[in-house]
Fold this protein.
Amino acid sequence: MKRIFIFLCFSFLSAHVWSQKDSLQIGDKYSEDQLYISITYNQLFSQPSQVKGSGFSYGLSSGFMRDISFNKEGTLALGLGVGYGYDSFNHGLKVSRVNNEVTFEVDNSLTSNKLSIHSLEFPLELRWRDSSVNKYKFWRIYAGLKVSYNFSNTFTFNNGTQDFNFRNVSRFNKWQYGLTMAAGFDAFTAHLYYGLTPILKDTSIGTSNIETKIIRIGLVFYLL
């Protein structure tokens, strides 16, 4: 039922945007309200020195952007959005629970060690494009900030004989911020997210704080 509701909402928004475009005339002021879908290759950086490089990790996100034009031509604008993001990481940090306290340690021998993240996204973009009312293929450069609120995180690992799951770890940083950049032509746009906030808070291995952050590189598709 939840999936049907989300599909209907997206369908309604998409129809609204298309009808808005069809009603515009040359010379009208316009905006680029858009649905967006992105797929990324993810990596963790600023990891503790003892942690080996993470394995293949990926991310998916989608949402809606509201466009506020700064000029009549619509070439400069501010984009405000809301969406949903999912990230999956293979990583080298082992989660344990000692005296009801969650702790982290390095264990590169684990056969499987994954982190799954579900978040609400709030992107803010300064937008430039060479589009017009009747020009649907154009160059774009969007730069900005993305704020994420994590509502679910799960650490899962296998030590060769048993699976372990830790859900909604309290030391996970629920609010995270990162810089974004998107540039491309027509339907194909390269996307970069550079995390500014560590994914964990008040955590350390020995005397070294865990400052692990996220970087995402991929493609974002804007549906007008």
Summary: The longest strand covers residues 139-158. The mean pLDDT is 82. The chain has one domain: 2-223.
